[in-house]
Amino acid sequence: MKLTAREKSELLGEGIVTVILLLLLNLSILVLATEIIRSNPGLESGIFQIKESITIGPNNYRVWSYQNFFIFFMAIVDVWVVYWRLMRRYKQMQLRHIIGELHYIADGHFDHRIPFTLKGDHQRVVDSVNALVDSVIESMNEERKIEQSKDELITNVSHDLRTPLTSIIGYLGLIENQQYKNEDDVLKYTHTAFLKAEQMKSLVEDLFEYTKVRQASTKMTFNQISVEPMLEQLAASFELEAEKKGMEIDAKATPKNIKIEGDSEKLGRLFNNLISNALKYAKGGKHINLEATQKGDQIIFKVSNDGEQIPEKSLKHLFERFYRVESSRSKATGGTGLGLAIAQSIVELHHGKISVTSSEKLTSFKVELPVTQKSTKDAN
């Protein structure tokens, strides 16, 4: 830490004043001791005998006066006192600098850190302050991200609800105002309004599920799940829908008897979303493969299809809320844009990872989950 000219002057003045006071104190003690010794002949005689019996060095040099002992002793004490006083004042100056830096940071300069290096407790204070500021900045940035995320969520939900709601009001308005030619028109309008209402219901359900799995207090019920029967059941539940699209679903686990610890309801939702995603967007695809392979303490799940390739620029955005590969936010494919975001949240609740790769031949979602969870108890 660099001292200012004023602080250097303060230290110099402190040293000079301390030396003067110590010299006056030493002189006073010396005069007082001399008077006491001279007024007491017995004490003076005893000191003389001690002086004669003490020799120093090879030449047996005798200490000629007790004053020499006093001056030598007091010189050591004085040096220590001066050093202690100067170091005490120097540390006060260090503390003053630290307080000044704190006020500067508190005035809103949150990108500033205390730059100087000290020793001992003051350095620990500096390190703690810098660490605290870093933590506060990180919390503030996280809070901003949360607020921005909430704003984006509200904007996206408003957009996706407004579109079908406008259609519902429009078609029901035609019926309300009797702007139809015959009963077939009424059925057509009500059917369209019904489909739009279903679309809104799907969005609300997905939104509810997304907010539920994103909460830190999400309840998790972990139990042992046989992997192959789970995959076979998932394949069977989508078999009819796949046939309508001219696709086949195959399920396979290696080895066949592997088990995983997880929340069966949420894992079901995870793979439902991935399979639904494949059925909706695998244009031109003929096969959907569900695979599970155990590698050490991890189970690798893959949901793959041979449909249309996902553009490279879209891969890194797939797990973002409301993101769709289509350039517009139309609902031609019936998706809400929340399915993969929900899938990612469920994977994170199981302490796993999810990723996606896509080529001209194969698009594959890979889910890595631990065989056992950190806690087998219900988690809140």
UniProtKB/TrEMBL annotation:
Reaction(s) this enzyme catalyzes, per UniProt: ATP + protein L-histidine = ADP + protein N-phospho-L-histidine
Molecular function terms from GO: ATP binding; phosphorelay sensor kinase activity
Organism whose genome encodes this protein: Pediococcus parvulus
Name of the protein in question: histidine kinase
Keyword terms: ATP-binding, Cell membrane, Kinase, Membrane, Nucleotide-binding, Phosphoprotein, Transferase, Transmembrane, Transmembrane helix, Two-component regulatory system
Membrane-traversing stretches: 12-33, 69-86
Boundaries of every Histidine kinase domain copy: 156-373
Pfam families (UniProt xref): HATPase_c, HisKA
Xref: InterPro entries: HAMP_dom, HATPase_C_sf, HATPase_dom, His_kinase_dom, HisK_dim/P_dom, HisK_dim/P_sf, HssS/ArlS-like, Sig_transdc_His_kin-like_C
Localization of this protein: Cell membrane
Sequence ranges assigned to domain HAMP in this UniProt record: 89-141
Membrane topology note: Multi-pass membrane protein
Documented EC number(s): 2.7.13.3
Main location: membrane
UniProt xrefs under SUPFAM superfamilies: ATPase domain of HSP90 chaperone/DNA topoisomerase II/histidine kinase, Homodimeric domain of signal transducing histidine kinase
